[in-house]
Each structure stands twice: as structure tokens, then as C-alpha cells.
Amino acid sequence: MMREVNNIFSKKASRIIRVLLVNFGRKWTIEELSKESNVSLGYTHAVVTTLLKQSNVHRDNSYKVKLSNPGLILKRWASYSQYTAVNTFLRYHTFEDNIDNFLRKFKEIENRRYAFTVLTGAHLVAPYVRPTNIHFYIGKRRDVDHYVAKLDLRPVETGGNISMVLPYDEGVFYKTQDIEGLKVVSNVQLYVDLMNYPARGEEAAQGILFLLEKEWKNHVFQ
Q1: Residue 221's pLDDT is what?
Q2: pTM attached to this predicted model
């Protein structure tokens, strides 16, 4: 009997879901999917078995798998994921009250592994909702001092307008995009982070979903 997983949106399983969504239209062998998502071969096989049983993917004659309905599984994942609950937030204050000026300053410093997300990410990808707080994932806790010094940030107990985010899983950095010299999480990750984010997060998520649906439609007709 083929092994299955209980939760296709767990930390490891979501790496596989993310790869399938970001690369919608591509067909994968289990080995390729395992390598791309940095998940063991056995666990990848279990996730794919579960996805096949749920009709989320289909398998062709060469036994390669392809995602069936990206919008459905993305919305399910976004409903499950809780950005403010699963990540660790390090809160700071900047006296720069213009977000565009702050981002220009950010672009000029020597950056480590990072990626903007939630409303800041949406502002860069599809400007619609203007953020009052800036959130960006960082790769390592030791990078905090680098950003504090370069951006002249002040630590705060509560509130603040800058959040450095230690992610629940490094998978959030998969296929980050470059927007005018700044790194932003993939649109898939951005949608997932935004959907349960307060202060107009769901509203901004709909703009990102529109972009994703256009991209998926192009793949369908290729």
C-alpha cells in the first residue's frame, strides 16, 4: 500500500506544493520534484500519492505528474496558512516615513538573503494597497544587526513599522523575484502570506491572484 501524508500543507509538504504552483504547467518525475523542493525522495512520493488520491495532480503515460487545478489548491493552502502565527517577528522602527525613500535606501546597502512579503511585496509587484509597515524575510538571525545598522533602525517592544521575519521554513525563498533591484517572494508565496494578513491583506491578495491566473491561463493554452 502506497504511503500517504496527513497534511499536504505541513512544512515539508508545502515545499512540494510551492514548487508545483510556481512552475505550473511543468511535468515532473518524483526524483525531479524531490530535488527541486529539497525534500527526501520517500516523502515526496508520499505527498504525490496523496495529491493523486485527492485529484490535485494527474500522471501521464510516462509517469510524470502535473498539477491539475492551481487556483483550488492555492486557495486551500492560503486558508490553512497563518502568516502572523507561524513566523517569528523582530520589530523595529524607522524614522523614514516615506516607503519609497526607505526602499531606495534598502537597495543601496549590501543585502544578505532576504525577500519582501505581505503588503510591501504587493506594493512592489502590483501597487494597489500602500503599506504603512514593511515586512521582509531574512535568511539568518545573525543578519539582523547588519540591517539595524545600515537602515538606522530602533528596536521596539510593540508596534513598530519594520518587521524582520524569521520564516517558519526556508522554502519561502524559493524562486524569489527581482522587482526594480529588490527581492520579493514568489507571487505564490505572496498570495499565501497575504490572505490571512490583517489590514487589507486579503484585498491585496486578490490583485496577486489576478496575476497568477493570467500566468496559469497562458500555460494552459501553450
Answers
A1: 43
A2: 0.95
